[in-house]
Structures are given as C-alpha cells and as structure tokens.
Amino acid sequence: MEGTTASTSTSSITSGSLESENERPGSLETNTREKISQEHNMINDTKIDDKVLDGPAGERIICQFYLEDKCRFGVDCINLHQGEVVSKKKVKKLPSNPVNNDGRKEKKPPMKTAQDVIKRIQWDEDIAQEFMSVGYVDRFLGVVEEPFTSLCWEDIASQDWDTLAIPQHRIQFFKYKTDKVWDKTSRLDIVFGSTGSKTKLQDFMDEVDQRIRDQPAQEHASDSESDSEDNDEMISLRGTNLETTVSRISEEDRSTHFLAIKINCKELASNLRKVQELLISKEEILEGCCMDSSLFHITLGMYNIRNIGGICAAVDMMETIKDEVQDIINQRDTLLEVKNLDNFGHRVVYAEVHPKDPQLFKDLYTFVREKFDSLGEDVKNTNSFEYVPHLTLCKVSRPISRARRSQYIAESFYQSLKNQWFGSQRLDNLQLCIIESSTRFDGFYTTLSEIQL
Fold first, then answer.
1. Rounded to two decimals, what is the model's pTM?
2. Are 301 and 383 in contact (CB under 8 A)?
3. Region 237-452: CATH code
C-alpha cells in the first residue's frame, strides 16, 4: 500500500511539473495556442453576418463579376451582389454563304480546276494556244506569267531538269491575250462558266480581238490630231516580244506583200545556217520550220495590196524613189551587224540586227513607210507591232505544232549560240516581195520590184 501511494504521488508530481512547464511563457505549446487564437480573432473581425468583406478603407467591395452577370459563386460569394447587372448579348456571325428559303446554307457551285482548263486549251481547236498565257506562283519571284506554249504539260515527274513545267496547284490564272478567262482567287471561269458566268468563251475572245484591233486605230487618230513639231517615230532596235499584243488577223488585214533587204552575204548565211542545224539536232521535226538560207531577209514593212491598181501604184513608187534612197544613204555607214539570238513568244527564233548607223536605218525606215502610206486605200500598212529589226531563222507552223504537240522552241536548244556574232550585211538593196510559195530563179521570194543601191 505504501509503495502504491508513493508511486501515485510521484506520477502526479511529475505530471504537474510538466503542465506547469508547458504553461510557462515562451514555451512551444503556449506560442502555438496564442498564434491560433490570434488567427481566429482576425477571421472573426473580418467576417460579417452577410459574408461581405470590408475594403481597405472600410467600404464594402461590390462583385465586379456579378455586375457583368458572370459570377459563378452565387449566394456563396464573399463580395457584395448589388447594383444593376449588365448582360452582354452575344453577336451572331452572319453565314458566309447565302441562306435559302429553308434556312439552310447554299453551297457555292464547284469551280472547274486548272487541269480542266489545260485540257480544254489543248484539245479545243477554236482556242489558239499561242494566244494563251499562264500565271503561276514562283516560290522566289511571286506570280510569274508565261506563254502557255512555253510550258510542258506532261507528267511533271517524268520531266528533265531543263524542262519548264509547273505543279498545277501553283496556277493562279489563265489569260487570252490581255484578259483573264480563269482566275482562282476571284473564282472567275469564262472557259466553262462553272461559277455562274453567262459570257461564252468564244464571244469573250471576239470582244478582246475587236478591242485590240480598234486600239491601233485610236492611237493613230490621236497621233494625227497632235500638233507636236517632232513627228519622228520611235523604232526599237532591241528585241521585243511581239506575242504580247498579237491578235487574230482577218482576211482583209492579212499581209500580201512585204518590203525587205535580201541577205546576199554568203558567210553570214552560212553562219546562220549553223543555228538551224543546231535546232534540228535537238528536234528533227523542226527542219520543216527552218527558213531556207536563200530566203534570208530583213523585213522593213508588211502591206496588204488589195487590187491591181494598188500593185501598179506600189511598183511605180519603187521605181521613182531610188534616187531619194540613194541620197539618204550617201556617205553614211550602211553596215548591218547580225548577232545574238532571241525569240518572239518562244515560237519564232531570230537573229538580232544592229545597224552601225542607227539614225540612217531609222531615216530609211521612216521614208519608205511614208511613201507606202501615201499610196491610198489600195495599199494598207499591216505593221501591227513595234518594229524590231530581225532576221527570222525558225518559226513553228501550225501543222508541225500539232504533230509535236507543242508550239514553242526551248531556249536551251540554241543557248550555246545565243550571244554569238554571225556576220554583217550591207544596206545595198530593197525588194518588194509577194507572200506566196513560189520563188524566183535564185530561190528568193517572187518580187514585184527591186532596187539595187
């Protein structure tokens, strides 16, 4: 008993001493209790009955999300729900496609693809391929326009590195001469009318042709009304792509005669013949497109002489101008240098003609043109383009273009001779020639009149 009482008193003394130790200021348990008590008092001080927080200045905060009708806490929100709620109405987007009477969206009509247009141009005999051009996206240059006949339309995977071919998804538009007939961006389709166009392709081409035919007449009329003292005509002595302004030629405007300088320098003709041989080595069928060396000439003017009266007037005029032409070239350098190769629309390969005295050549050209213009309505000047002195070497004809399925000659065929000097020719003759298949005794065109200078 005594032992039990002693142990009990010992444990109570020990417990009492521990409790008194924990309650001493600075002990861990005392500090923890004080901290919890302070936090509890702070919460009680900031809470109010309706769960509204006081602002820093003692003002109640209004829930901004409540005012915008966006508060997701509702009655449990600790902020004040007061004031006028402004609800924002959602604006419905208008449909991009029109809506029919049933309220359903109408789909745009499917547009014919670039592949469809290519096939139409290739197989429709009413569409002249040489008058068509293609606009496509080049990764470095942007949108580039090229003649339709200068591109290869076979399977692109089977082509060589030097062949000009493009992926069809890069094609942006097709043009007939100067006007677009198919455009991907604006959904223009005059070729098939798949996007709702009511204009027929043939009618559209006729309108373009008529506008191009009328344009030179309007320019001539404006020139005649001008009071400018300087009436000199600009003559380009560098190559210009004539295919950019080509038009369909009616029978009345078709050339029947031309004035030219015959090439009589054998060395020049021999060097030019080498260019033709190079083209034939690349593609044998081009032999039928190369001009015979006996027909080499430099054209000065193209004319349509309608009747016997016009022929007589032209011949008489040629016989009377010899002395005047002689005065123009007297004591001046009549040498014409033939060098470099270029092309018209990739269909015609020609050698450039560079006069030693450009002013002399310009004076002669202007003189003979004025003389022919003075002959009246029976002799019509059919020069539709800016005059470019040139010597034609090869021109792809329609039958051969059909046989080879292409009307263009790749520049790579004659690249090795493109910047070569071929020779020179003196301005020592003028020939009024007839455009026909027959030739005279020396193999040159049949002529109505000839002037030796």
1. 0.49
2. yes
3. 3.90.1140.10
